[in-house]
Amino acid sequence: MRILPFTLLKPRGIGTPGSIVSRAGEILEQSIRACESHVDFKLSIDTVWAIGRRRASLDRVSSLCSAGRLAIGSLWAGVDPVRYPEAFLRDVQLGALSLDLAGIDSSTIVIDGDGGPSSGLLDWAGICRVIFATRGSGCVDLSCDLGLRFLSDAALAHRDAEREISSTEDVIGLGGALWCPTLDTIRTLIERAEDAGWEVRFSSWDALPAGVPSGRGQAKRRYFDAIQPDVSSVLRRVTQSLLRTDRIVSLGSLLGMDVSSWNTEDVWRRHLEDLAGSYTGSGDRAKQSELHRSCAEIAGWSERAQADVELRVAEEVDAGKGPDGILPLVVFNPSTHQRSDIVETDVIYYGDSLATDFGRYEFYRIVDPQGNPVGVEEISGKQVETAEVRIRFVAEDVPALGYKTYYLVPKPQDVQSQAVSIQAPGAMVPDFPEPTFALEDVEERISEPRRGLRLGRKFHIGEFTIDVDEVTGSIDILGSDGQKLLEGMRVEAEEDSLSTEYGGFDPTGRAIPLVVQGVDLVESGEVSARIRVSGQIGKSPAQIDLCAYAGLPYLDFEVALSWRDSNPAMVVLRAGLGCLGAGRFGAAFSSAESYEAGYASWMISERESLALTLAAESTAIACADGELRSPLLLSTADPASYAYNRIWMPYPEDVTYAFRLGLVEKERATQVVDRSGFLSCRAIYDRISARRRPASDSGLEIGSDSVSVTSVRSTSRGIECVLHNPSGSPGEARLSHAGKEQMYVDVVGNRVEDADDLVQLDAGQVKAVMITSRSPDEERNG
C-alpha cells in the first residue's frame, strides 16, 4: 500500500489570512515532528510561503529535505499559471530563491488550476515535475479522497475505501487543503493497513516519475474570473502596477540612480499570496473586503515607488530655454521598445511672482524637444487658488525604457513685440493655429420609409471608421481602406442551463440582447473622440465606450456592466472576424493548450505587411466558429446554496473591461500586444536648478519582431530581463542598454554564461539576461 501524504497550504481560502498563517504554522511544526519521530514517514508540501515565514525552523526543514523525508514544491504561493501568467513567473522565482537560500533542492511544482505553463518556462526554471492538485497527475490523483475515506470513522466509507485500495496499484494520495499530519493519524493509518494485511510504504512526489501530465481533454474550462469580476479585475490591476513598478525602478537603476529603497520582492510575495487565494464560500464577503484592503495598500506602495523614481529623474532633465512660464513635461515609457501612445497628466499653473496669477497660461501649446507643436486637449480642470487642468496629448517615439521631454509653452501676450526664441530643447515659439478635431466626419443612415428615422451612424476618427447600428447596438469597425476589421461587435447574455459544476457554463442557446437606449458622441477634441453605446441587458445597464485618436493606429474600447439580474447567464462580448480572419492567440508563458481552451489575452492576425491586434486587459479572448468571444460576467447560483434554495452570487455595482485594437506593421505586432504599462508624465516647475540629463534618454531597448519581453526587474545583482519566444520558429532579440555588461542567468539569478547583444531563442524557449547597471558614482562621472 503506497501512500503519498501531502498538504496544500493555500495562503487565502479556508478562514482569514491571519488564521491560515497560524494553521500553517501548526501544520509545519506537526509535519516536522512526524518526520523526525516516525522513521518511515514522508510528507509533501505544495508551496514555500509558510516555510519562509518560520525562519527558526529552516535548519530542521532543510535537514529533512536532504534526507528525502520532506518534499516541498518550488512555488512561493501557488499562483494559477493560466489566469495570472506574468505573476506566475514571480511565483517561480521567489519560491526558488527562498529554497535556494535555505539550501533546499526542488524541481516540482503543484498547480491548483486548469492548465500548466509552457515547457520553455519549466526548462529555464529547472522544473521537471508538474502535479495538478485538481485532477489526476500521472500515477497519483491529489483530488481523490480515497486516503481520507480509508481513515474515516464512518464504517461504510472505510469499507468502500478498503475495497477500492485492494484493486488499485496507483499511489494513494492522503491529504488536502490545510491537512495536518499528526502522529495519531499515522498510527491509525498503519494499524488499519495491517488489519487489512497490507504494509504501508510512504512516498513523496519527488519519487514520482518526472514529466508534465497532458491536460488535453481532461481540464474543463472554469469561469472563476467571470463569476467574481471585481476580484479578478482588482488583482490584475495590482499585478500590472507591480510589473510597471519593476520596470520604472529598473529604468532608474540603469540611469545610475540609487533605487535600493524600492525592492519589490516582499511586496510581490504578499501579492502572490492574494493571487493564490479563493474568495468564495464561507465568509466570502469578509475575505473579499480583506483582499481589497490588501490590494489598495500594495497599489499605493507601487504608485509611490513609481512617482519617486520618475520625479527624481525628471528633476534632473534639461528644462529648456525660452519664454517665462515654460513647463517641462517628462514622459516615461516602461516598455523595452520605442513607443507612441496617448498620455495624460495634471498641470498646475503658477504665476511668475504671485503663485495664483495664472493669466499667462490663457493660451498655450505643447511642443516636443525640437519645438514642433503637438495636439493637446483639456479633459478636466478647476480654478480655486490657481488653475489646475488635466491634459491629454500624443507622445511620439518615446525611447525604450526611458523618457522624452515635452514642453508646455504659454503664448506671449504680444508675439510681434515680445518675440522670444526658444533654444533647443523647444527650438521655436510655436504658432497658435485654430484647433482641429480627431473626429473627421459623421455619416447618418436614415430610413426613408420611416420618415427619416435614424438607423445608424458612421464616425470617422483617425485610422478607423466606427459604424454603429442604433437599432441592434452592433458595431462594425473598419480600417481607413473601408475593409471591416471587426464585424457585428456586441454585448449580450447567453442563458446558462446550470447543469455543470460551479464555475462551468453550459449554454441553452437562448440569448438576451442589449436593448439600445442611446448612441452618443461623449467626447470630441483635437486628440481623441469617444463614442458611447448604452442600453440594458434585461434589467442590467451596460455600455460600450470606443475611443480613437488622431495619429495613432489604436482603438480603445471598454465595456461597463452593472449586473442586477438573478438569471443564470454568461455576459459575453462577441464580434465577427473581418477581412484579416483568425490569427494566433497567446498570453505570457501559457501553453498552446491554454490558448485553445480560451485563456488567451491577445490575438494577432497578419496579412501581407499588416497585422490586426487585439489585447484584453482583465479578461480572456477566444475564437469559435469564426467569431471572437470574451466572457465578461457569469451570473450563477452561490455555492453556498442548499437543496432547492438558490442564493444568487453578489455582483459589484460597476465593472469595466478594457480592450485595445491595433492595425500596425507586422513587425510591431508583438510589441503592440505587450501591455507592459501606460505612458506617464511628470510636470516640473523648477527650471532654475542645475540639470545633468538630456531631454530624452533610454535605459534599455530590446528589438525583436517575434520575441516577447515578459519581465524586467531590478535585483541586487543587476537588471534581469526574461525573454520568451512564443512563436513556432526560432527568434532573436537585440539588446541595447545603458548598463555595463550582460550574462545569461538561471531562475535564482546565478550566472550561466556570458551573453552577447544578440540573444537567440528556439521556438518556445525562455532565457533570462542579467545586465549589470552603473553605480551613481559611475553615472556622475560619465
Features:
782 residues; alpha+beta; 7-stranded beta/alpha barrel; Beta-galactosidase, Chain A, domain 5; Immunoglobulin-like; 9-stranded antiparallel sheet; 15 helices; 22% helix; globular
Report on this model:
The radius of gyration is 29 Å and the shape is globular. Helix content is 22%, strand content 35%. The termini are far apart. Among the domains are: 2-219, Glycoside hydrolase 38, N terminal domain (7-stranded beta/alpha barrel), CATH 3.20.110; 490-672, Beta-galactosidase, Chain A, domain 5 (Distorted Sandwich); 699-782, Immunoglobulin-like, CATH 2.60.40. The strands form eight sheets. Strands 15, 16, 17, 18, 19, 20, 25, 29 and 30 form a nine-stranded antiparallel beta sheet that branches. The chain has an eight-stranded antiparallel beta sheet with strand order 21-22-23-24-31-28-27-26. Strands 8, 10, 11, 14, 32 and 33 form a six-stranded antiparallel beta sheet that branches. Helix 10 runs antiparallel to helix 11 (265-275), helix 10 runs parallel beside helix 12 (284-314) and helix 11 (265-275) runs antiparallel to helix 12. With 782 residues, it is an alpha+beta fold. It has 15 helices and 41 strands. A hairpin with a 2-residue loop joins strand 27 and strand 28 (610-616).
